[in-house]
Amino acid sequence: MSRATTPCPEAISTSTPSKQPTVLVERRHHLLVRWSHWLNVPILLGLILSGISIYWASPIYQHKPDPITGNFDFAADIGIWICAHVPALHRYSSPADWVYDHMSLGPGMLAVAWWAGLRFDDLLRAHPPMSHAKWVRVESSVNLDASGNPDPYYVSIDLATARHPQTLLATHLNGQPLTVEHGAPLPLMVPVKLGLKNVKAITGLTYVAQEPRDYWAERGYSHYDGI
Question: Alpha-carbon distance 36 to 53, whole Å?
Fold first, then answer.
């Protein structure tokens, strides 16, 4: 008697196993890719240092809290500390010497100058105004228009702006005594405002309680004129 046998499934299977997808793994990036990554490091450090250098170029001497928010500017304090401890930067720690970018009226009018003189805040401390005073009227009665005719110039400055550490009654420009062309004998420099708030050859300062007249505000410009 014959005996039937069942063949093993593995013996009759004719299907071929599916191929697994392969992935090519690069152990290292291309040399140019690696260089471009490392080049970002000095660029990033340069951006950080250039930002901090703003405070080195124009440190706020005896830095105080913001009069409105009461906050301290720690980056400015770092700049002050560096100027005080690095010999090459000692000259920037002087309370009367300032280097700043001055933006005037109109596009593209940007200049860098080194002004020295008396801080307006020092004048206010030595000769304080009456308690009700909130504004300063700054006038130059010797100002001339483009035709050479008398054209008195006057601006309004709030006392908070007058007390700003960079508001300066200048006597020197780039290490030299001021000339008439640059506002001698005593111009007002307000770097936190547009250039129209700067006054050459000051002939009068008046402290008042109400906002005084302003030359350019009467001609359609803002009273604030901040940067």
Answer: 26
What separation in angstroms does the CA of 118 have from each of 12, 98, 104? 104, 11, 21
Q: What amino acid is encoded at 129 in this protein?
A: P
The top-scoring range by mean pLDDT among 3-7, 76-80, 112-116, 124-128 is 124-128
CATH, range 115-227: 3.90.420.10
- Please answer whether residues 77 and 60 qualify as being in contact, where contact means their C-beta atoms are separated by less than 8 angstroms: no
The burial class, CB within 10 Å (0-12 / 13-18 / 19+), for 117 is: buried
pTM of the model: 0.54
Higher pLDDT, 10 or 35: 35
Report whether 168 contacts 148 (CB < 8 A).
no
Q: Residue 166 has which token pair? A: 């960079």
Q: Is the pLDDT of residue 69 over 80?
A: no
Preceding peptide of 185 cis, ω within 30°:
yes
Domain ranges of the chain: 29-93, 115-227
